[in-house]
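Protein folds are increasingly written down as discrete tokens. With that in mind, we are printing a sequence and the tokens encoding its fold.
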Amino acid sequence: MLGLLSAVGLYVTTPPPPPLGYDPLASKKYVRDLEIYGGKINVIAVEFRHSWSQLWHGKNLAYTIACLTVLVASLCWYIGGRATSELDTQVGLNIT
């Protein structure tokens, strides 16, 4: 619950993004230069790094926290369910 509430709080309190700033990946010349110097893999790596850094700012951070919270809660629920089912079968075997 704490993770989801913090995600909602971040989403509500995040100011809007600044108006059109300079994004080098939007420039064809910059992308072409990247490809000339490092090949396609360089362009892919720069785009991945840019996308990864965007996850930790603004409203995207709220989405990231919400998804990670749901993922961790589901994992805990799954592990807890498996542990109790194994415990039930072990107790059932010891009764005889």
About this structure: The first helix runs from residue 2 to 13. Residues 36 and 42 are 9 Å apart (CA to CA). The chain is about 80% helix and 0% strand.
